[in-house]
Design a protein that fits this description.
162 residues; alpha+beta; Rossmann fold; 4-stranded mixed β-sheet; elongated
């Protein structure tokens, strides 16, 4: 495994948005991210929700659902690295023109879509177009947030003067 140059060994804030599913090993990725968090620092993991409400084709939604993020496991692995985690969720209403959405799907804007060949993707786009009528799509973009904190180093008592 290669290494990446960093300007310092630890950071007060580390943000990782929608990256865990790209790692060959989630445990290794979490240990690496945790190692970057300085005492008193925070790590924010942003994950897509376990169930997507995106207007995608059935095969894409099924493939996404095969490996949902396990936030309990993530929190336990971070705890083993000395970080305390809190998990929360939030949804944001999204409105987008259907033509623009179909262009984004065709461009494979989401890494999940790279798993489909051109023929499968074209069929999926036709399915989306047939399923969702009207020129505008409205849906929720939902995320899971894992906020992990490393406790600061305990302060050493100042020795009493004699």
């Amino acid at each position: 495994m290669g290494s990446v140059w960093m300007p310092r060994p630890e950071f007060e804030v580390v943000l990782a948005k929608e990256v865990l599913h790209h790692a060959a090993g989630t445990g290794v990725a979490l240990r690496t991210l945790a190692s970057l968090v300085a005492p008193g620092g925070r790590l924010l993991l942003v994950l897509l929700a376990p169930k997507l409400d995106y207007p995608l084709f059935a095969a894409a939604l099924e493939r996404y659902g095969r490996h949902p993020a396990d936030t309990g496991s993530i929190a336990a692995q971070l705890a083993a690295c000395g970080l305390h985690s809190e998990v929360s969720t939030a949804s944001f209403p999204l409105t987008i023109g259907k033509d623009r959405w179909l262009e984004m799907v065709a461009d494979r804007w989401m890494s999940l879509l790279s798993k489909f060949d051109d023929v499968q993707l074209a069929a999926g786009i036709a399915e989306i177009d047939a399923t969702y009528s009207g020129p505008v799509l409205e849906f929720d973009d939902s995320f899971v947030f894992v906020l992990a904190r490393r406790l600061p180093h305990p302060r050493r008592p100042t020795p009493a003067r004699r």
